[in-house]
């Protein structure tokens, strides 16, 4: 038979009733000989016929579900003759059909397994929601090695069952050979348990652990255990299940190749799970490879809704407010850099609450606000450099009497604001701080920076019209015009 789609179209009104002496439909014949274009054309011609059930003699049957004298469907023919594309097309068009056995008690799945067509087995299992897997036990009893046979990606039957949440299929495979649970795929080194965790299939996770008590200890190619994987994929039910099970809760502080704990990944995601943050075994002070604690991570992220996670972490471990990374940066530095006004407020409020509890007179709050990183930048330096005006106002409002020190390149926040031309920040600092410092590198002052920003050495007499920062500085301290740098140069 030739795969001629034109003939099919010319006779499309009669194809439904065209049968061979063995009751084969045109779809049977096309599937048997692997005429893919014909299979596709037939599926296109009869879209309204899919899902139609027989309801009496003379009514049309769904062509995909029609069987011949041997009770073979078109899928039987495609599998028997090893036509993978035809198998894929047929299963995708009717995934919920429970493919029955033929007169020889063979289902399409059984035929694929019997002939060693592992790829077709995987296609049927992956696509069909009910592929008559009552044959699973018989298949595994007949050929136990089938449970360990993998496809080109290293996926076994158990990998597919775990990925798609097929609990009964997973149970049948595990009953046949539970060692399959320890097989990893080729690329990511995932076990079936890792795949179940990534999809949040709690029932499959429970089944796997019930058969293999120690398989939960395995990690994937990135060193991630099932809790890390569940958190990364934001599967809340799986996270809850793992935390409630002992000894699975011991996974809570294990690190991946980047030395991230589950809390680090939680902080970096949009998934908030209080049970993880409040778990008694959770190590809030763990550092990853970037020398970040979970609080540092959540403060440096810009996702909506992170404030709740910040507050929970601070409630559980307020000492993190003072914890610095390898660059001596505090969580406040991170929040300010990312323009997280809400997070910065939460951090400051938390430390002020500690001051009240300790009756320390605001010492802890000032310590956080005045903490410097390895470049000797306080949080205000960071806010100024990034021109985050609202954060500048917050920081100086909380500590207005502090005489801000210069950083490693001898820049005070006021000098830096003037140098980058941020007039609003200059005005905010001068209007709020009681004794702001104004020095810069080379003995220069903020007024030097204002003059240099547009190379204005001859316009000071007209400063009110041309430079707000210069005008504001001179209004604040007229004598600045006389102060010289280390070379003896004044702003003039």
Automatic annotation (TrEMBL):
Upper taxonomic lineage: Eukaryota, Viridiplantae, Streptophyta, Embryophyta, Tracheophyta
In its UniProt entry, the species of origin is given as: Camellia lanceoleosa
* Name of the featured protein: Ankyrin repeat-containing protein
């Amino acid at each position: 038979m030739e795969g001629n789609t034109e003939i099919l179209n010319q006779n499309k009104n009669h194809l439904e009733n065209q049968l061979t002496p063995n009751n084969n439909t045109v779809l049977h014949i096309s599937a048997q000989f692997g005429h893919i274009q014909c299979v596709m054309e037939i599926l296109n011609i009869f879209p309204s016929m899919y899902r139609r059930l027989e309801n009496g003699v003379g009514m049309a049957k769904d062509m995909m579900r029609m069987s011949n004298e041997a009770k073979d469907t078109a899928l039987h023919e495609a599998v028997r003759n090893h036509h993978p594309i035809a198998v894929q097309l047929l299963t995708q068009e009717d995934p919920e059909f429970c493919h029955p056995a033929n007169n020889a008690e063979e289902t399409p799945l059984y035929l694929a397994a019997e002939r060693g067509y592992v790829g077709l087995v995987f296609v049927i299992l992956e696509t069909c929601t009910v592929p008559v897997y009552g044959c699973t036990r018989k298949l595994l009893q007949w050929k136990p090695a089938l449970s360990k046979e993998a496809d080109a990606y290293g996926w076994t039957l158990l990998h597919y069952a775990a990925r798609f949440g097929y609990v009964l299929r997973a149970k049948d495979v595990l009953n046949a050979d539970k060692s399959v649970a320890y097989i990893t795929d080729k690329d990511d080194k995932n076990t079936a348990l890792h795949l179940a965790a990534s999809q949040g299939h709690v029932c499959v996770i429970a089944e796997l652990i019930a058969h293999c008590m120690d398989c939960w200890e395995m990690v994937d190619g990135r060193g991630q255990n099932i809790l890390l994987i569940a958190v990364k994929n934001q599967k809340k039910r799986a996270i809850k299940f793992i935390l409630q099970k002992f000894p699975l809760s011991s996974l809570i502080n294990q690190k991946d190749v980047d030395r991230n704990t589950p809390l680090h990944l939680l902080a970096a995601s949009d998934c908030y799970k209080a049970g993880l943050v409040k778990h008694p075994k959770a190590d809030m002070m763990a550092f990853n490879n970037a020398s970040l604690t979970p609080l540092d991570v959540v403060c440096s992220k810009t996702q909506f809704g992170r404030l709740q996670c910040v507050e929970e972490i601070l409630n559980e471990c307020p000492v993190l407010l003072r914890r610095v990374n390898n660059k001596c940066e505090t969580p406040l530095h991170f929040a300010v850099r990312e323009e997280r006004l809400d997070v910065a407020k939460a951090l400051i409020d938390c430390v002020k609450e500690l001051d009240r509890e300790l009756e320390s007179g605001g010492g802890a709050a000032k310590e956080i606000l005045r903490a410097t990183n390895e470049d000797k930048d306080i949080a205000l330096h960071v806010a100024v450099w990034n021109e985050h005006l609202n954060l500048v106002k917050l920081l100086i409002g909380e500590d207005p009497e502090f005489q801000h020190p210069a950083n490693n390149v001898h820049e005070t926040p006021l000098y830096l604001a003037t140098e980058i031309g941020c007039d609003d920040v200059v005005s905010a600092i001068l209007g709020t701080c009681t004794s702001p410092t104004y020095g810069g590198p080379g003995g220069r002052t903020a007024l030097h920076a204002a003059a240099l920003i547009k190379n204005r050495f001859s316009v000071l007499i007209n400063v009110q019209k041309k430079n707000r920062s210069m005008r504001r500085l001179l209004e604040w301290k007229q004598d600045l015009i006389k102060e010289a740098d280390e070379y003896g140069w004044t702003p003039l």
